[in-house]
Amino acid sequence: MAENSTGPEPAEDAEHAAAEWLFQDDPAAAKKPAQPTIAPGGESFDLADAPTPAPTRRAYVPPPPSSEWEIAAESAYAEKAARPPAAKERRRDRDDEVDRPAARRLDAAPAVDHPWTRGAEWGPTIAAMVAWAVVAWTVIYFLLVSELYGAALAMFAIGTIVGLALFYPIVITLERPTRMTPEQALRDYYQALSHHVPHYRRMWLLLSNAGRTSSKFASYEGFKRYWKARLGQLRQGKAKGSTPLVFVVSGFKSEKSGGKTAIDGTWTIQVFVRGRREQGPIWSFPSDGTLAKGPDNMWYIDDGTLAERAPKTPANPDE
Questions:
Q1: Whose CB among 108, 137, 179, 227 lies 3.0–4.6 Å from 298's, allowing a Cys bridge?
Q2: Whole-number Å distance between alpha carbons of 77 and 65
Q3: Residue 188 in contact with residue 195, Cβ under 8 Å?
């Protein structure tokens, strides 16, 4: 069929008109053109970039509560807001007081920084034994290469004797110092002193931080010098040669140590000469002091010195 020469059909024209109407801008929302400003001389001109008035907004007014639950919630909120600040401060202060003891416990310094361990006790001895073994076997090797068999045999004998001497501190400390009670801590401490060659390192490791610092010493070397001099004083006129002294802890008294980290006690240190214990102690030192529990739940001594024996005063002051 041939197209209509007079134009589109009326139905199609109506559809196009409806579509164009949908894409047209809202005349009410379109920006109104700025009105020209008329000067006194009769001339008119337009203002450039004239500000557009901002739309006004009404403040939001919440609707009235529609239920009893909303009324109760608003009342509780208003009561909380009206609470005086002094009550809040008092409650905060009470909470701080509850937290302060825990903070003090966290800030408190530990009583023992270096607890006893087998490595700390035997480490230097094992290192010395290994070093001596390397030196001795190196010398023996070169003697054998040089076919000096007699000298090599003599060096082997010397090396064996020195090795056994170095092994001695390990032999006398094979038993672990299990110090579940304060009295046992004192016994282990003075037992390490009751040998031909006292095991000063074990004694040092059984001291707390407070026990490692005193007016007599402040280091391990000073600690050894103190006890060597003290043993010399105790031996003088009482024991001959290298006869060891035996230290015995007796009469220990203290409160129960269960659940405590520090404790006070009193005890007596009796000193005997080995082989003559039936003759009684040659010295007796009433002592008192404190002990502290370390991070390994073992007890450590707060004073590593031996109490000085008070000199006897004569009955007659004029004598």
A1: 179
A2: 14
A3: no
- State residue 29 phi and psi, 5-degree precision: -85, -15
Q: Which of 84-98, 197-211, 264-278, 301-315 has the lowest mean pLDDT?
A: 84-98
* Strand-pair category, 262-273 with 283-293: antiparallel
Burial, 124: exposed, middle or buried (Cβ in 10 Å; 0-12, 13-18, 19+)? exposed
Query: pLDDT (tens digit, 9 = 90+) per residue, 261-280?
Result: 999 999 999 999 998 888 99
Per-residue pLDDT at 109: 72
Q: Where are the domains of the chain?
A: 112-171, 178-308
Q: How many helices (H) and strands (E) does the chain have?
A: 8, 6
State the Cα angle at 306 between 303 and 307, rounded to 5°. 100
Which long-range contacts (C-beta less than 8 Å, at least 24 apart) are formed by 171-175? 172/199, 173/121, 173/122, 173/199, 173/202
pTM to 2 decimals?
0.63
Mean pLDDT of 124-150: 94
Query: How far is the C-alpha of 39 from the C-alpha of 219, rounded, in Å?
Result: 102
All residues at 6 or more sequence positions from 239 whose CB lies less than 8 Å from its CB, including other chains: 245, 273, 282
